[in-house]
Amino acid sequence: MFNVRNSQSFNMEKNMSRNVTKTQLVNEIRKVITSTAISIDVETEVRMRKTDNPYFGATKRNRVAGLIGFDYENSVNNQLGREEKTMDFVAQEHKWAKPTDSRNLLTNEASTKLYLRLKVQSTGHPVYSFNGREISKATLVPFMPTTKKPNTQANLDKEIIVRTYDMENIKSVRMLGDEFVVTHTITEAEATPTEPIRETQTA
Q1: Of the candidates 3, 28, 90, 189, which lies 20 to 30 Å from 145 by C-alpha distance?
Q2: Closest Cα partner for 67 from 42, 93, 40?
Q3: Taking every pair of C-alpha atoms in the chain, what is the biggest distance, in angstroms?
């Protein structure tokens, strides 16, 4: 059993590196019940159109830092307060994912996949690759969709950025003074979460 400390910060140089399976990583994330600083290395397929796209299937690897264990509704209302606006935001249920026994993890409708729910505070310098070779983002931009602020945050000047990352795509995690490096692939049976707890928060 790994030792989890009640701290909201981590020191990148003092992290103790541990090799873990995806199941062990999920269990560590489930232990976190308060707002906690986290940094992840994640590799995802770039969102792009498939038609007439010679680079479809390109990937992006990046380091993302932020918070887990946060309350989305409170985060938005706190930002409204900082902007001296009415704090009347009410979160709605997530459009495609369901809550689990952990506020840090969501699951799909079939309960076969898990997603880390992260309030993004900063990102590194992403590296894009195609067919095993690095490629510039500028080459991919013409095939990528444009992004816009969520309608639920239309009243905010500064967006509260929340992302959901497939646990299968997370390569390592740094939190609470430890670094967890994934060395094995999670199985479908291991990915199935326990009975979900219904919440009214959304990413």
Answers
A1: 90
A2: 40
A3: 50
Report the half-sphere exposure of 6 (CA within 13 A, side-chain side): 2
pTM for this entry: 0.78
Whole-angstrom CA distances from 64 to 28, 49, 152 are: 18, 24, 23
CA–CA separation, 115 vs 58, rounded Å?
Answer: 21
- Cβ proximity of 156 and 80 under 8 Å: yes
Helix (H/G/I), strand (E/B), else coil: 30: helix
CA distance 161 to 192: 27
Delimit the domains of the chain by residue range. Answer: 16-44+63-121+146-191
Cα separation, 56 vs 74, whole angstroms: 38
User: What confidence tens digit (pLDDT) does each residue in 58-107 have?
Assistant: 999 999 999 999 999 999 999 999 999 999 999 888 888 999 999 899 99
Q: How far apart are CA 103 and CA 47, in angstroms?
A: 26
Report how far residue 65's alpha carbon sits from residue 29's, in angstroms, rounded to the nearest whole number. Answer: 15
Length of the chain: 203
Q: Which two tokens stand for residue 97?
A: 């994912």
Model pLDDT, residue 60: 97
DSSP state of 28: H
| Helix ranges (DSSP H) in 32-169 | 72-82, 137-140
With the C-alpha atoms ordered 183, 46, 113, 37, is the resulting torsion angle positive or negative?
positive
Q: Which pLDDT does position 23 carry in this prediction?
A: 92
